[in-house]
Amino acid sequence: MGDLHSALVAYGPIAVFLGAAFEGQTAVIAGGFLAHQHLLPLWLSLSCATAGSFLIDQGLFLAGRRYRAARYVVRAAQTPAFAKALEFIERFPISYIFAFRYLFGLRMVSPIAIGVSKIGALRFTLLNLASAALWAAIFTLMGYWFGQTIEATFGRYKGFEHHLTVAAVVLVGVFVVFHIGKCAWPHLRARFSR
Fold first, then answer.
1. Which residue ranges traverse the bilayer (predicted)?
2. Cα separations (Å) of 173 from 23, 86, 180, 192?
3. Contact assessment for residue 52 and residue 24, using Cβ atoms and an 8 Å cutoff
4. Is the terminal CB of the chain with fewer CB neighbours within 10 Å at N or C?
């Protein structure tokens, strides 16, 4: 159990950072749960979640901005769906920047689309930072409060929190693998059905 504890303390911040960047809410909730278990400081879980979310979205925005004049991007922007999305983004930029992290399926493409739009880089950076901090706080605190609920419910079992931590880490791992597989399955099926 000491090895698991040491690993969670050493690599937990990295896992929360990468999870916030590439997976989303589940990793951030797990970071809050680890903070409740005193394996990570709460401020560190919040900071790693904010930084991971902010940096990936900032990078995707910059990629959209850098390649918005590329022929394939210009062609994509002329399709009715993309044009409608850009119109919505430019009409409600603050609302969209604060909302896209919560919209299933739009998490990774939205910053690219915003980069293609006319929204200024400084404006996006400031809104992105505020949005990432709010998103991280919501889901980290959900994990933290969930830990309090679990502890209140099962607190009478001595040593139970260690088993619960292991179970939470395993569940998060299974969820991440399932999520990646779910996203990759249509592409793999299309590739092998040709």
1. 12-35, 42-63, 94-114, 126-146, 166-185
2. 11, 35, 11, 27
3. no
4. C
Whether the predicted model's global pTM rises above the 0.85 cut: no
Write the pLDDT tens digit of every residue in 16-59.
Answer: 898 888 878 888 888 888 888 888 899 999 999 999 999 999 99
SS3 of the chain: helix, strand, coil, percent, to 5: 85, 0, 15
| DSSP output for 31-69 | HHHHHHTTSS-HHHHHHHHHHHHHHHHHHHHHHHHHTTT
Q: Which residue has the tokens 């930072």?
A: 129
Give the span between the Cα atoms of 187 and 172, in whole angstroms.
24
Residue type for 189, please?
R
Tokens for 84, please give them.
């409608």
Q: How many domains does the chain have?
A: 1
CA distances from 71 to 63, 67, 68, 74, 76 (A): 14, 9, 8, 5, 9
The Cα 43–Cα 53 span in angstroms is: 15
Report the distance separating Cα 157 and Cα 148, nearest Å.
Answer: 14
Closest C-alpha to 138, from 31, 52, 15, 37: 31
pLDDT tens for residues 132-173?
999 999 999 998 888 777 666 656 555 555 666 666 666 676
